[in-house]
Design brief:
CATH topology of the largest domain: Rossmann fold
Structural class: alpha/beta
Strand content: 15-25%
Number of domains: 2
Helix content: 40-55%
Order of helices and strands: EHEHHEHEHEHEHHHEEEEEHH
Number of helices: 11
């Protein structure tokens, strides 16, 4: 398969640590260029740097995004309208309206899209989900607790400090519980997005789950936890440190070459954002 030429929007720490190297090392993709608001950071990725995002679009067939949600929502719409396939970060946008505009632009342009919900690409997660499908699941719980909003943590970025764990790690947790127990049909939320947030999720088919989210705890919290219980057994996602980004790149390349069809697409991202927006509204009303 001919490597997909992917342009990268963004050159912050995560772009330099993850997205840039992932796209550059191939063999399924090649980094065709970078556009960022700070060209000096873009130059560190070792690919052509473009001063206008439209110039980047002219030199690639797909665009990956590693920028804050509001920026992604703006520029991904432009890329979709330019006919480019999209590799998107979660959440789609900083607002439900922005997520709708982006999902609508993808659908109207008919371009392929895929979201980097990293947990879903790991073999351990896929084995966990296969086990969940065997046990007639009816309930589960998850916890994602860290100190990422404290001190000089690299993820203590302005949008995370403003919106907290629900918008950042919420997509990962809601997505995986939905994959394990059935699509989420309702949410009840309590707590504080900048402190501790609790979610009670209703799933299609009658299953229920609970999730605890926090990015403001000191010390050494345990790794993320997912457990599902069913009528014929249980399933627990083991902790792992594997890097699934090679699988992300491979699946994105195949999605682009096939013209779309990945389950973790922009439409899926919109459904996650609808649940998060509902939960945020409950927490702030």
């Amino acid at each position: 398969m001919e490597p997909v030429a992917v342009g990268l929007v963004g050159a912050g720490p995560w772009a330099r640590m993850a997205h840039g190297p992932m796209l550059a090392r191939g063999p399924h993709t090649r980094l065709a260029g970078v556009w960022a608001r700070r060209p000096e950071q873009a130059a560190q990725l070792g690919a052509p740097v473009f001063t206008r995002v439209e110039e980047l679009f002219d030199h690639c067939e797909a665009v990956a995004f590693c920028v804050p949600p509001a920026v992604q929502a703006e520029y991904a719409v432009l890329a979709a309208r330019a006919g480019k396939a999209l590799l998107l970060e979660k959440p789609l946008a900083d607002s439900l309206d922005g997520a709708r505009r982006l999902a609508d632009a993808v659908a109207e342009a008919g371009v392929a899209s895929q979201i980097v919900l990293t947990l879903r690409y790991a073999p351990q997660t896929r084995a966990f989900l296969a086990r969940c499908a065997e046990i007639e699941p009816f309930g589960g719980h998850a916890a994602n607790v860290s100190g990422a909003l404290l001190g000089d943590h690299p993820f203590a970025t302005p949008w995370r400090l403003e919106r907290g764990a629900l918008l950042d790690v919420g997509p990962h947790v809601i997505d995986l519980l939905g994959a394990a127990l059935g699509p989420v049909t309702g949410v009840r939320a309590h707590g504080d997005p900048l402190g501790w947030t609790g979610l009670l999720l209703d799933h299609e088919g009658g299953a229920v789950s609970e999730a605890s989210l926090c990015m403001a705890t000191a010390g050494d919290p345990p790794p993320p936890m997912f457990a599902v219980y069913g009528r014929t057994g249980s399933a627990v996602l083991p902790h792992f440190d594997d890097d699934p980004l090679e699988t992300v790149a491979e699946e994105f390349a195949r999605t682009v070459r096939a013209g779309g069809g990945h389950p973790l697409d922009a439409a899926h991202g919109l459904r996650l954002q609808e649940i998060i927006a509902d939960a945020e509204h409950q927490l702030t009303r």
